[in-house]
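Re: weekly structure request thread

Next one in the queue (229 aa):
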Amino acid sequence: MEWEEFPFTMRLDEPEEIVEGCVEKRRELLMGFKGSPDVDKKRFDDAVKPTMMTMSLTGEPTLYPRAGDLVEEAKRRGMITFLVTNGALPKQLEEIDPLPWQLYVSVYAPERKTYYEIARPETQKAWDQLNRTLELLPSLETRKVIRLTMIKGYNMKDPEGYSRLIEKAEPNFVEVKAYEWVGESLRRLPREAMPWMEEVRGFAREISLQTGYKIRGEFEASGVVLLTI
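Done, posted below.
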């Protein structure tokens, strides 16, 4: 398979198109609630005017070469921005200007072998690229988060390995989060791969002991524990 990071032969959507399209689709999604007597009018009006935009979920947002313009467009509309990356494109990440208000890097494994088993990247440079991204993070002037999605029986191991990666990145926050057995993931993994909240807490405590980051909060509904310096 031939890997092409930037298919410039394709037309790129303009940042204004993307942000306006997202706002409009959100409005369409919520509009059906407007006439409900159970919905508070002020809360509805607030909801159709988003104050935050996250570049995440399907695909890798740093593949879009105008990510900085997306951030600028969202800011112009009064929104703060979050960007979630798998860290595969450190050069592109370094060139984003302005940076989002908060940057997440998803770390799928504590070492190379498990990383390739979990992430299944198209390129064999992916682990090295991720590490270059982590080395880059301390120099980026924005809020930074390392997200560890824990899959029981797969990557929920070697807290020392994860801790070495965290120490390299020097993030403001670390999220230790349970893999959720929902949606399309029902077809990929067994239910037992979703850890219990107490198991997530236990792993977060191990990370805390190794790194010196302190547990500051948790949200059980999402299976997440937050650590900060």
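The first helix runs from residue 15 to 31. The CA atoms of residues 178 and 196 lie 8 Å apart.
Next request, please.
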